[in-house]
Design a protein that fits this description.
Layout lengths: L11 E4 L2 E8 L3 E6 L7 E4 H9 L3 E3 L14 H20 L10 H15 L7 H13 L22 H15 L9 H13 L11 H12 L10 H12 L10 E14 L5 E12 L5 E8 L5 H12 L23 E5 L2 H4 L1 H11 L2 E5 L8 H13 L11 H4 L12 E2 H15 L13 H10 L10 H4 L5 E3 L12 E3 L2 E4 L4 H11 L8 E4 L2 E9 L4 E7 L10 H15 L11 H13 L14 H15 L32
Parallel strand pairs: 6-9, 6-11, 9-10
Antiparallel strand pairs: 1-2, 1-5, 2-3, 3-4, 6-7, 7-8, 12-15, 13-14, 14-17, 15-16, 16-17
Helix pairs in contact: 2-3, 2-4, 3-4, 5-6, 5-12, 9-11
């Protein structure tokens, strides 16, 4: 069944390269109202629009140029933004669409010279800086002003441990899903937190005070505390309105996403260190089920990892695609209505935002960076992950403060492979977390909460065009089709890709016939370098091209490939003991042969074609000149000639028109 958000009212789309808005008409028809007033409004059925979406003729686009939150520019920054935008606009006017608006070195120099003269800029940017601004314009939601945004002030590190913070978040979660905020008893909340901490039987754990707990709860339900002068009734009203954002009525109404960096190092199958782990999780607020996740090596989030996690959350998980020790299933998936993420570059980049709008038309809600109280449910899960999973994994070295007290590093303590870590993680999610009673669910497990919604008549919805959801995405490039005959494919980040059907070659031939450069638009992911998505400009459809390197397997990450490639180069560069290099007898034989042939010339080699072969070829050419076709003398090149399929002996039986 089609997602409800797919044909939402007043959604901005591009239909056949024309901007329009969707208008609901009844239950089965939609009107496309084009922004160009000269174009008439057209009516379509849901089925017709779905077909256009699957064919790549209908695209969802972002309705705003930038998120409405966290954009704070000083007057000086606004002047600098105007300056940068002018340079970027100049280079965009000089280059074509296939260059992503970056241009070559010479074009950037020419653009800098023109704009600096217009603005009277005595300190113009260098070509490399202008290239970075152009990339920001293409990839960042705030364009060239990405680096000008006022940085968020991060609070100092909490004096409480992860175990204490987990008890606090669990108690606040219970309070949010229980009593209304205007009936909150902070004293009871303090007592509940104290009981949870004491139940851990760890004397060194500190219990937060009454004032700290009250301030923390207020931050969770409202990030901006009321100013002085408000009446108590007004404050309670504000609290009631603020808490509604956390109230849900059915699964997938609101999901939260965030990344968590775990201080546990991983190695490959040969014991080579890959790096520490960053995980992206997507949690359903209503049931607390984990809808999907992704993993990458190293610190920091990437758009590839975020999109990989979104894809994992949207699509059903087939049995055998995840690890379980209790034969449990992972039936949690579907299109979500509201997607909540922070202001990190991986979440607000155009690739991620466009992917969300393209595959399911989801509303994206962006919260401030380092403001975990604005997405408290995923923050609580991250704490649960650290306390109840990561602390039991061999190689986990704990928080940064704990690492300073250790005599070994993360790399020295790395012992698990990527496969082993995935098995432990997925088994913990599927077998443990989903079947553990949750205080925020009134004692029900996430699996029971999901099943309860199904029993009440609710069911998850798949995104339209499920085959398009699975296409690799996260980063984009415009590589050139390689080879004199355009048969080699394309190369992205030192990996060559091609397709068995020869579509990339056909695209290159088509572009060359139009006097255009054989350049194609591709999307790819660092989470799986085994394939890429290629856009066919003739049909506006994306198709998959596979990596040509046989060492690259399915779901191999960029980090794994780099380590494997470096180790392969090291193995190939090894010095090999070659016995023939030191063979004195062989060297002596060469000297004797040179002495024997001194002054002699090499005899003339025989003809490449013997005389009898040459005579046969001349005889065949003479017969062909007379119109005689000898089937027994057909060459290898004739086998692919369509003319060989006709019966030339009966050619006289055909009559002309």
């Amino acid at each position: 069944m089609m997602s409800k958000s797919f044909f939402a009212e007043n959604v901005l789309v591009i239909f056949h390269h024309l901007r329009a808005r969707l208008k609901q008409i009844g239950k089965s028809e939609v009107a496309l109202q084009f922004e160009d007033s000269q174009l008439p409004t057209e009516l379509f059925t849901h089925q017709e629009l779905t077909k256009a979406f699957n064919a790549g003729q209908l695209h969802f686009v972002n309705d705003t140029e930038a998120p409405s939150t966290n954009v704070q520019l000083t007057p000086e920054s606004r002047i600098e933004k105007h300056r940068r935008d002018r340079y970027v606009k100049a280079i965009n006017e000089m280059v074509g669409p296939n260059s992503k608006g970056v241009g070559g070195f010479k074009k950037r120099i020419r653009a800098i010279a023109i704009v600096s003269k217009e603005l009277g800029d005595t300190n113009p940017p260098c070509p490399a800086t202008l290239g970075e601004w152009c990339n920001d314009k293409n990839e960042k939601m705030h364009g060239a002003a990405h680096t000008l945004l006022a940085p968020q002030k991060r609070t100092r590190e909490s004096k409480f441990t992860d175990e204490v913070m987990l008890c606090v978040m669990e108690s606040i979660d219970e309070q949010l899903c229980g009593k209304a905020p205007n009936k909150v008893s902070y004293k009871q909340l303090e007592q509940r937190i104290s009981r949870k901490i004491k139940a851990l039987n760890q004397a060194e754990l500190k219990v937060p005070g009454y004032g700290w707990i009250k301030s923390k709860f207020k931050k969770v339900i409202w990030d901006k505390l009321p100013k002085s002068g408000l009446k108590s009734t007004e404050i309670k009203k504000l609290y009631r309105n603020a808490v509604r954002m956390f109230k849900t009525h059915f699964p997938l109404e609101r999901v939260e996403a965030d990344g968590v960096y775990l201080q546990v190092g991983l190695v490959d199958e040969n014991g080579h260190y890959l790096g520490a782990v960053t995980l992206i999780f997507i949690i359903d607020v209503h049931t607390r089920c984990i809808l999907g996740y992704s993993m990458r090596m190293g610190r920091g989030e990437s758009s590839s990892a975020v999109i990989h996690a979104i894809r994992h959350a949207l699509c059903p998980k087939a049995e055998g695609s995840f690890h379980t020790k209790r034969n449990n299933k992972w039936p949690y998936y579907g299109v979500f209505s509201i997607f909540v993420g922070d202001g990190g570059s991986a979440f607000i980049c155009k690739m991620t935002q466009t992917y969300l709008l393209r595959v399911c038309g989801t509303i994206v809600e962006t919260v401030a960076v380092a403001s975990g109280w604005l997405k408290p449910f995923i923050e609580r899960f991250n704490l649960t992950l650290r306390v109840r999973f990561a602390s039991r994994i061999p190689g986990y070295v704990g928080p940064m403060e704990d690492q300073k007290k250790l005599e070994y590093s993360i790399e020295e303590n790395a012992i698990l492979t990527v496969t082993e870590f995935k098995e432990y993680l997925e088994s913990w999610i599927v077998d443990d977390y989903h079947h553990t009673p949750h205080t925020g669910l009134s004692g029900k497990t996430p699996a029971e909460a999901w099943q309860e919604a199904l029993d009440d008549g609710w069911y998850p919805e798949l995104p339209a065009g499920l085959d398009k959801v699975a296409l690799p995405s996260g980063k984009s490039a415009y590589p050139k089709v390689l080879g004199k005959d355009l048969h080699i494919g394309v190369q992205i980040e030192n990996i060559q890709y091609n397709d068995e059907d020869g579509r990339i070659k056909d695209i290159g031939v088509y572009l060359r016939s139009k006097d255009l450069k054989p350049v194609v638009y591709c999307e790819y992911s660092d989470c799986d370098v085994s394939s890429i998505s290629v856009l066919d400009p003739r049909t506006d459809e994306m198709f998959i091209a596979q990596a040509k390197d046989s060492d690259i397997v399915h779901e191999m990450t960029r980090e794994e490939y780099r380590i494997k490639h470096l180790k392969k180069k090291e193995l190939m560069a090894r010095e090999v003991d070659r016995p023939m290099d030191d063979d004195k007898n062989l060297e002596q034989k060469h000297k004797e042969l040179n002495k024997r042939n001194n002054g002699k010339k090499r005899k003339k080699q025989r003809n490449a074609l013997p005389e009898n072969f040459q005579d046969e070829i001349e005889h065949q050419e003479a017969e062909e000149a007379e119109g005689v076709f000898n089937k027994s003398s057909s060459s290898v090149s004739d086998l692919d000639d369509p003319a060989t399929k006709f019966d030339f002996e009966n050619i006289d039986s055909f009559e002309s028109d």
